[in-house]
Structures are given as C-alpha cells and as structure tokens.
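Fill in residues.
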C-alpha cells in the first residue's frame, strides 16, 4: 500500500487549500482513510477520517471537509477553508482497515502512512 499526499503550500489566514492523497496497492473501498497533522514540537494529531461516514477533530469541524473521488477511495481530499495560523503543520494521509477496537483519533492505530505535505498559514 502506498499513499502519496500533495497540495500543501503557503496561504494567508482565512484562505483555503485542498490536499489530495493518492492511494495505490490495495483495495480501499472498505478502509478508513484519514488525515493527521503534526506541528513543530507537537505530537501528531487526528484531523479527519472517512469510511461510510465522516469524522472530524473539534478544531477543524465546520472548516475542513474530507471527501473521496468515488467509493474506491483511491483519491482522498481534504478541503481546508478559513485557515488559521494554528493549522500550520505537516499533513499526513493515512489508511487502516476496520478492526475491533479501532480508535480513529490514535495515530498508532493506523497502519499505512503517506509522506506528508507542509501547510503554512501566515497571519
């Protein structure tokens, strides 16, 4: 399984960016696909996930939207609106098959990771 994240960049506060994650090497229709982020000096944190439903961290609810191109989930997107300086981080896409006890918000419960794309929000 390979995940390739792209779409990061520099944006002013209040602006928007769309991240993309290309997934290959597996059949992802039943997987959870997600986004995490890690700011300098901080732990990696959950941002959003999608399987049959969508899940969001409270800090991004109402501003970020996770979606897929189709049910195959070979492309996963994170539309980020109303960006804030505190959204600055390296954003990672991730994937995991559903399993008993899966905790979406815990990075160590996810199995597959992309390489990350840097999002910088200037004030």
């Amino acid at each position: 399984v390979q995940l390739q994240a792209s779409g990061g960049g520099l944006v002013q506060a209040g602006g928007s960016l769309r991240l993309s994650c290309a997934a290959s090497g597996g059949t992802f229709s039943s997987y959870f696909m997600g986004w995490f982020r890690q700011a300098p000096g901080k732990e990696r944190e959950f941002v959003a996930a999608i399987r049959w439903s969508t899940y969001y961290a409270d800090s991004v609810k109402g501003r970020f939207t996770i979606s897929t191109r189709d049910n195959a989930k070979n492309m996963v997107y994170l539309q980020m609106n109303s960006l804030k300086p505190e959204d600055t981080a390296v954003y990672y896409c991730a994937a995991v098959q559903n399993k008993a006890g899966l905790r979406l918000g815990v990075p160590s419960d996810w199995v597959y990771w992309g390489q990350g794309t840097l999002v910088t929000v200037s004030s």
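The two ends are 37 Å apart (CA to CA).
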